[in-house]
Amino acid sequence: MQRHISRVANNIIFRLILALIFGLFVGKYLPILIQSIFYAISLTLKESLIFLLPFIIFSCIFSCLLSFKSDVFKFIIILILCICLSNFISTIIGYNVSHITLSNLENFSNINNTTKESLNPYWDFKIPVLISNNVALFSGLIGGLIFSKFRKPRIDFLSNKLRDYVTLFLNKAFIPVLPIFALGFIIKLESDGILSQILSSYLPLVLAIIITQFVYIAILYFIGSGFNIKQFIYFIKNVMPAGIMGFSSMSSMAALPLTIQAAEKNTKKVDLSRTIAPATVNIHLIGDSIAIPMIALVIMSTFGSGFPDFSTFLVFSFYFVLAKFAVAAVPGGGILVMITILETHLGFTPEMGGLITALYILLDPIITSANVLGNGAFTIITSKILSGKTVN
């Protein structure tokens, strides 16, 4: 019993819900000084993350590309292109569904600031950024591709060490303080008089995300089945245990054994399934690619930033898709590396970044389940494309 209680207490979603409840019902009654300190702590944590983000991005992309165990360079390039195309299509779907949703639901744009004076942080902590995220992103991408072609044992060892250090930092240092990170922004939003209005308005968004993700994934399985209903049902039956595991564990990696098992049954290609599924588990993310843009665009509308035009969103999508290779396999990892991209290309403020982080983690079970099910469909389709390529 104590072990069960301890597990629940340590669950990141449980602690984030507590932070949300505390910020919503208690935060505004705290002395202004305390509110200001909480807000300053959140901004300090954000500055620290931004400072370390180039290293995280480079390490994750570099180690990700070197994790492809096949020595066939052409195979790797085709698989990466398939991943990018799939993530890009999912992102564009999120954009278009958001446009339709916002056009028909006016309550998203009716959030008003009822506070005369906005809450200010108690201190202003700034760290100079030494390397831009774009430099880190492209350096990791180019370096990973080069050394996946020209393998060096020392480079592989370095790649594994970089990945281990990043995972250790996120799991042991940053993920545990995520509720505090979100709390300061939650208190800020409630102090400014808009948090309760936001929460009462976002149920349609959650429903839109769920429907969009699983309808699109179902279409992919239908395509993979050759539009054969009986084969479609067979595919879904095989992959559902992996989807349920992803939902309950909030980890695509935890569901990987079941994903591989389902892929082997669905494709009848054991070698390809055992190559594609593990290689894409943390970078082909249909759930993220649909959910993050949808949440982001609704938040922009909520804060009066307006809906971005398609050309602006295309630029964002380019960096968004590339940044998928830098996603760390930790709770909330899908959003952490995206915050600066949202700020740079969609004009997000720190408060908007804190809000999307909280919403993303609350929806993480659903998003992870969609990622797992989407990977199952991706393995079926890409195995047909790649079946003519050699896999060592």
From TrEMBL:
Annotated Gene3D superfamilies: Sodium:dicarboxylate symporter
Entry's transmembrane regions: 12-42, 48-68, 75-95, 127-147, 168-187, 199-223, 244-263, 283-304, 316-342, 354-374
UniProt entry tagged with the keyword Cytoplasm: no
Record keyword Transport present: yes
Any one GO biological process: serine transport
Listed InterPro entries: Na-dicarboxylate_symporter (IPR001991), Na:dicarbo_symporter_sf (IPR036458)
Keyword terms of this UniProt record: Membrane, Transmembrane, Transmembrane helix, Transport
Gene Ontology annotations for the cellular component aspect, listed alphabetically: plasma membrane
UniProt signal peptide: none
Superkingdom classification of source: Bacteria
Pfam families, per database record: SDF
Location(s) in or outside the cell: Membrane
Example GO molecular function: neutral L-amino acid:sodium symporter activity
Membrane topology category: Multi-pass membrane protein
UniProt-recorded name of the protein: Cation:dicarboxylase symporter family transporter
Organism: Fluviispira multicolorata
